[in-house]
Design a protein that fits this description.
- With 133 residues, this protein is α+β, with helices and mostly antiparallel strands.
- It is built from three helices and three strands; from the N terminus they run αααβββ.
- Helix 1 packs antiparallel against helix 2.
- 13% of the residues are buried.
Length: 133
């Protein structure tokens, strides 16, 4: 058992100060990671939802023999739900009996000291051939 008689040795005080500094550094890194995550996760989540919506829409259009303009109209109707900017490029084509949908847009995401330039550029193709009719 050790007894403390008098002031702490200088080396012990320096070790304690270094541990506090390390704690503050880790805390700062966690705060920055949390902030960046809070800015980026919703954007990537909406992009995943948009990809699913795009695939479902072209599959439905092919199965119901809808024109390619209907697909574009459906995507434009969902601009608020998926956070699409007004200048989004939406192209629909029919190739080999399948409907293809291409959506492309850019978004600047402000981060603490920089701006992240996010680019969404996806093309989906209907899984089924269009019905003749």
């Amino acid at each position: 058992m050790s007894q403390s008689c008098g002031p702490r040795p200088r080396a012990q005080q320096q070790v304690r100060g270094a541990a506090q500094l390390n704690f503050l550094i880790v805390l700062a890194i966690l705060a920055v990671a949390g902030y960046v995550g809070a800015q980026l996760v919703p954007v990537y989540y909406r992009a995943t939802l948009l990809q699913t919506f795009m695939q479902d829409t072209v599959n439905l259009a092919a199965a119901a023999s809808k024109p390619s303009g209907w697909v574009e109209q459906q995507v434009r109707a969902g601009t608020d739900d998926y956070g699409l900017p007004p200048d989004t490029l939406i192209e629909t084509t029919t190739r080999d009996g399948r409907i293809q949908l291409h959506v492309k847009f850019f978004r600047n995401i402000p981060l603490a000291i920089t701006t992240y330039h996010y680019e969404f550029d996806q093309t989906v193709k209907s899984a089924t051939l269009m019905n003749g009719g």
